[in-house]
TrEMBL record:
Belongs to the radical SAM superfamily. MoaA family. The lineage of its organism: Bacteria, Bacillati, Cyanobacteriota, Cyanophyceae, Nostocales. GO terms for biological process: Mo-molybdopterin cofactor biosynthetic process. Monomer and homodimer. It comes from the Bacteria. This is GTP 3',8-cyclase. The gene is moaA. It holds the Pfam family Radical_SAM. [4Fe-4S] cluster 1 binds at residues 15, 19, 22. Keywords: 4Fe-4S, GTP-binding, Iron, Iron-sulfur, Lyase, Metal-binding, Molybdenum cofactor biosynthesis, Nucleotide-binding, S-adenosyl-L-methionine. It comes from Cuspidothrix issatschenkoi CHARLIE-1. Signal peptide: none annotated. Its cofactor is [4Fe-4S] cluster.
Length: 328
């Protein structure tokens, strides 16, 4: 069985974007109140006294938009400097990144994924649901700054939505030719905006690879990450292309992760709501971290049965939380 040692930690459910694939159109989301969020102190207790002792050593900070979390630099410093932390990464939309990139790096963050779904500022604004001027430019500056500061690998995440940004696949893939950037195409999932998913559907990684292969050729890369991406390379390119195919392929058997929401719910499987436990309420009720550790160990023991494992139907069920609330 796979070692489950990777925890995705959502720091906040709020976001300064409203990406059409991630949140439902129109409807107001009920954001968590400040007192519902795990505090920094509670999060550190859970990491040190619950997650690390049961084998978690790799952490990714996500959201919502993690850079909206107050005191993010200090929090990163504390997690990065725990002796057992082997890897600390972040997924961000990059909008607030440029001015803080150096501080994040100095605090010990070494890996960063930035979402960039379009190279066209107009389409970008449509996707993020915000028509303010200069949004795309600001994210682009965030990407450049992060790269110059030394974030390597620097990964760009692209969710491909038919009829929205699929015509840009080749341009996005071309970013990997001259720069050591890693562009990762993520199949659109029905978590967040089921209506858009119902209207547009999704494009398989195999189809994307076919388009790229026809243009430049494509080889399987020697680089293989720990995660679910299948990694390829345009011949001679400096960077790589990753394909995350959770709709068309089933990688549940090699799943190595769990997710902790900003309000302290531990979620064993992205695609299923089964088996979640509310660690924050337990912690605040005074339940000892020894007992919490046992609860998490129990979830780890039954995770193989909880994992989704069936992917024939294309869509995978109803979700009470959006992707922004789960953390991707
Ligand atoms: N705000 C940050 C960002 O956008 O990078 C972090 C949180 S976001 C929920 C994490 C990842 O989930 C992003 O790469 C985003 O593109 C992806 N995501 C959101 N909704 C998705 C969906 N319906 N299908 C596939 N990926 C999705
Ligand atoms: Fe916000 Fe990230 Fe979701 Fe976009 S994908 S709405 S940036 S949480």
């Amino acid at each position: 069985m796979n070692q489950v040692d990777y925890l995705r930690i959502s720091l906040i459910d709020r976001c300064n974007f409203r990406c059409q694939y991630c949140m439902p159109a129109g409807a107001e989301l009920d954001y968590l109140l400040k007192q519902q969020l795990l505090t920094d102190e509670e999060l550190l207790i859970l990491i040190q006294e619950v997650f690390i002792p049961v084998g978690f050593t790799r952490f990714r900070l996500t959201g919502g938009e993690p850079l909206l979390r107050p005191h993010i630099v200090e929090l990163i410093e504390k997690i990065a400097h725990l002796p057992q932390t082997q890897d600390l990464a972040m997924t961000t939309n990059g909008f607030l990144l440029a001015p803080i990139a150096q501080s994040l790096y100095n605090a010990g963050l070494r890996r960063i994924n930035i979402s960039l779904d379009s190279l066209d500022p107009h389409i970008f604004n449509q996707i993020i649901g915000n028509h303010g001027r200069g949004r795309w430019q600001q994210v682009w500056e965030g990407i450049q700054t992060a790269y110059n500061v030394g974030f390597n690998p620097l990964k760009l995440n692209v969710v491909v939505v038919p009829g929205v940004n699929d015509h840009e696949i080749l341009d996005l893939a071309a970013l990997t030719i001259d720069k050591q950037w890693h562009v990762r195409f993520i199949e659109f999932m029905p978590i967040g905006n089921g209506d858009l998913f119902g209207d547009r559907g999704w494009i398989s990684s195999a189809n994307l690879r076919q388009s790229i292969r026809e243009r430049w050729g494509l080889t399987e890369s020697q680089v293989r990450g720990n995660g679910p991406a299948d990694v390829f390379q345009i011949p001679g390119a400096k960077g790589t292309l990753g394909f995350i195919s959770q709709m068309s392929e089933c990688f549940c058997d090699r799943c190595n992760r769990m997710r902790l929401s900003a309000d302290g719910w531990l979620r064993p499987c992205l695609l299923k709501e089964t088996g979640q436990i509310d660690l924050k309420t337990d912690l605040r009720a005074g339940i000892s971290t020894k007992e919490l550790k046992e609860k998490v160990q129990e979830i780890l023991n039954i995770k193989p049965e909880i994992n989704f494992k069936q992917r024939d139907s294309g869509t995978v069920g109803a979700y009470t939380r959006t992707m922004s609330q789960i953390g991707g």
